[in-house]
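Why does residue order matter? Because the sequence determines the fold. Keep that principle in mind as you read this record.
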Amino acid sequence: MSAADTSPYGGFAGKRLALVESMLHSAFYDGIQAARAHGAEIWLLLRGEDWYTGGRPFREHPLSDVDRVLHVDTHDWRAIAAALGDGSGTPLVDGVMSFSDYHTEATARAAEHLGLPSQGLDAVRAANHKHLLRAALDGDPANLRWRLVTAEPELEEALVHVGLPCIAKPPSEAISYGVRKCATAAEAAAAWHELSAVRKSLRGQPRPGHVLFEEYASGFEVSVESMTAGGKTHFFGATSKDLHRTTLLEEGHSFPLALDGDTWDEVRGCVERALKAIGYRQGPAHTEVMVTADGPRIVEVNPRLPAHMISTMVSDVCGTDPHLDAKLLALGGAPEPGRPGSGPAGGAAVHVLFPEEPGEFTAVSGVPEAEALGARVHLHAEPGDRVATRLDNSASVGFVYAHGADAAAALATVRAAAARIRIDTRKEGRR
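Structure:
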């Protein structure tokens, strides 16, 4: 970086930014290096390294390439605040943020304690605990019928209210972990017994075993990518979603999705109302919306950037960098987000690679053939890794990414490219 950075991200120069944990995959690691390239000093707070390394040396992981690594109980906002303060209440950094669903709440509380820019503690809490989001949307036509079931005798009334089919999910989880579609009362009861027995989050935080039951909304799902600053929300656009086989896992995305004007206005309007309902002050949001025959319905609000290379699609199409925009906001800056048509690509798409069977990842074939079609293949698993051990978004082993004249063309490219790739696994105990 030159001494005088005149780019829109010159505000990073000389600033210290603390990141509490991270989401996985290269887009989030590259975002750290982009901020450092503009002069920011990055402190990384981790509770443990195995979540990222799988037992390999942390020094070999991209997350180790920061200015300081602090080992802190990142489940505890007090520990975060103590690590980032001088003991007298003065912060040692200029901003703190997290893209990890399991740590955005503790991070927001630490930021407010230290007097640093914050998304808003109540807003993050409502987004992360989905029953609080439902309560905040009470009376909004984009809400769904719902019940939080805290004990088994409540289940019958919940199903009468919500109806069948329905969705059962842990109210405070991420990456589609534990999401179940229930067609019958028996399936709903089975989901209750399964999910109420889970008393820790994937990151080890205690959970009370409550289960959220929601009305099943029939239609097509999109996500809306946005950035809020000073209470005003900038919308990048909508992203398409394709599901993996019969699961609720996301397998394909394209951006920007071409919705007709009236539908886009309705979708954007309901997302804006949802963000205002929870009091979201600033930061990126990845809001999932089901577009039904009766209008859009809010599925969930994620107070962070999206995974699955969606932020890369936004960057390539809109000519902006959501990772830098979000970090600049956390430092008190004022980013200038772009819009579709401002970037080098008319559209972009990504296909998520899932193995056929869980087990030990042994080999991948077809990558040269896929890339010959104009796609890029990004693998985040390697031979020897255990993959697809849970039925959630962690089951993916990589992405196929492409540009196109528009989103539809890019999606056709990644689908054709992904069809040429084979992921081989071996069940444990089999040689």
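The first strand starts at residue 16 and ends at 20.
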